[in-house]
Amino acid sequence: MNLKELSEKLGLSQTTVSRALNGYPEVKEATRLRVMEAARQFNYSPNKRAMGLATGKSMTIGHVIPTSTQHEMVNPVFGDFVAGSLEVYSQRGYDMLFSAVPDEDEAQTYRNMQRKGSVDGLVLQGPQVNDARIGILRELGMPFVVHGRSSGVSDPYSWIDVNNKRSFQRATEFLLDLGHRRIALINGLESMDFAQRRRDGYLVALHERGIATDPELMRSSEMTEVYGHHETRDMLQLDDPPTAILASSLISAIGVRRAIDEAGLVMGRDVSVITHDDELSYLKNGQDVPIFTATRSSVRDAGRHCAAMLIDQINNPTDDAKFELLEAELVVGRSTGPAPQG
Amino acid sequence: MNLKELSEKLGLSQTTVSRALNGYPEVKEATRLRVMEAARQFNYSPNKRAMGLATGKSMTIGHVIPTSTQHEMVNPVFGDFVAGSLEVYSQRGYDMLFSAVPDEDEAQTYRNMQRKGSVDGLVLQGPQVNDARIGILRELGMPFVVHGRSSGVSDPYSWIDVNNKRSFQRATEFLLDLGHRRIALINGLESMDFAQRRRDGYLVALHERGIATDPELMRSSEMTEVYGHHETRDMLQLDDPPTAILASSLISAIGVRRAIDEAGLVMGRDVSVITHDDELSYLKNGQDVPIFTATRSSVRDAGRHCAAMLIDQINNPTDDAKFELLEAELVVGRSTGPAPQG
DNA sequence: TTGAAAGCGTTACCAT
DNA sequence: ATGGTAACGCTTTCAA
């Protein structure tokens, strides 16, 4: 059933039917009711492509992930962010278009996206440090919001992020307070902006206490079990191994944990571990300690905010760049053990 | 730059330019070259919506997840499947449309999708037992492939799945061989088809050895850390606690592990744990044991297969239902401990 | 308050 | 081998 057929059934023009359906004020209320009823009855729903062609809007938001960081999708956090956005999109009549963009021809890809009119706006996932995509998108005049930030980009842009630096600074301070002096950081790829910020937080905490940093204790790679396992095993074999480990993701922490087991050590006794993104931290117990960072539900919330922000921006193109820094509270559980002897 | 402008620049008709660009055989090779060159130079790329309107194809594949199982997205496996599909889509010129469909008006939603012409085909994620969506989609004549299967659906449909039953049967048998008699299953929601199959595998293994099943040892819920933690803690307080645990997901296993810690027990000594989806199992060591199930890269591969299958189906609507049962090998590492005493 | 017709950017049919 | 034109399904002037 299309508009033409529906209007014929009703003995009205396509124009009137369209207006009735789209809430234009000039149609008689009785007519509108009749049209709405018929639309429901005949199961009419407008063809999005045709609407798009006619209006120039696609009612679709693109989520772009660089193929170079596709492994990031593996992060549970990512799924939650998407789920949150999806909620808002469906409420406001938007669709979500997913694409992986190869780094080589980013500019071209975005240009095409715009040209093809496939999306009204974009969400940029997994920004790198000094991410070139932001400049391209600004230049193109395409509305977009960045999930995360990109240090080094001076132009204004909209973003939503959690306070990665502060959370890692706090986590480090907490371990220092417990008496740890050999604290390792198992970070994500430091070309990623969030990883850089986490590292900064870690470094600031150490410097403020006058603790020397040790490059051997700072590892950076994809956040997978395999990597967490490998790096931890490696560090535990040092002459002066870490007594505490900051794991940058729930997934890599699984590997950290296994490496500790394999070394015959006990977590929380021989090695303390603080894990980012661990939902279990909600289960407060005597040994919990508050750290500010992302929780699963807060990430979902971030997705919602991001979606709302972008839709606003699309409908108010004159708006300035907006941003939100979310300070969600995470509680780290008992795997954070006591200080080492001496 | 649109087709009209491009054709004017070239002094050709829109028809010819279109044909040249789309590889029709009847254009002179010299013309085609000239057109291609100009298209490149002027950065022309066709408007997808207009193409869609004209051809009736949208070159878009929809991935649908029921909102009721949105937490599934949190599973790393999910991200990998999507990443794999995405690869194939972009190769073959397809876009990926993501949507969460509320269970209430599924039928309506699909009907609309079809009517709106927003997708050429669908991938159904997270099928339930006897999933009604399959019937609806068949009836609608919309090409689709199910990621997973749905027991109880008698009509033929295309699907791709891993051998969940066999993997859990094997894992259980392995634990039985080690001497375990109190084996717990921490399963996903048993309304989900994959969870049902895993349960079946577990039960078959027990029955074949004449081991009585204990409802107390069979838990089923969302696969989160919190749930894994809660159920494990609960079971460890039984008079006759489990000596081994089968965890249905990487994420819930994190909770399992913490509960074991909190109980003052040691994994691999007091309690053996086999975890599904653990990439670390790739790291073979002396105590590894082969279990057949999904690994991360095999899931990505499944996504690729699924995408290819669907695209074929779209282009060959007469084809019968196709399906693939993937038998990827997973190796479980040292967290699988020795048999309990006695 | 309603309707006719033009227009959005393609493809596809029918000529030439 | 190329071009004219209708058609896709909607929105939006402009008229009535």
Can you describe this structure?
The structure is a homodimer of 342-residue chains. Chain A has 342 residues and is an alpha/beta fold. The first copy, chain A, has 3 domains: 3-47, lambda repressor-like DNA-binding domains (434 Repressor (Amino-terminal Domain), Orthogonal Bundle); 60-162 and 298-326, Rossmann fold; 164-297, Response regulator (Rossmann fold, 3-Layer(aba) Sandwich), CATH 3.40.50.2300. Helices cover 43% and strands 16% of the residues of chain A. Chain A has helices at 3-10, 14-21, 29-41, 48-55, 76-91, 106-116, 132-140, 164-177, 193-208, 225-236, 250-262, 296-315; strands at 60-66, 95-101, 121-125, 144-147, 158-162, 183-187, 218-220, 244-247, 272-275, 289-292, 323-326, 329-332. In chain A, the strands form 3 sheets. The first copy, chain A, has a 6-stranded parallel β-sheet with strand order 2-1-3-4-5-11, sandwiched between helices. In chain A, strands 7-6-8-9 form a 4-stranded parallel β-sheet, sandwiched between helices. In chain A, strands 10-12 form a two-stranded antiparallel ribbon. In chain A, helix 5 links the parallel strand 1 and strand 2. Chain A starts with a helix and ends in a 10-residue tail after the last strand. The model of chain A is unreliable at 281-289 and 329-342 (pLDDT under 50). At the A-B interface, helix 4, helix 5, strand 2, helix 6 and helix 10 of A face helix 4, helix 5, strand 2, helix 6 and helix 10 of B. The structure holds a DNA duplex (16 and 16 nucleotides).
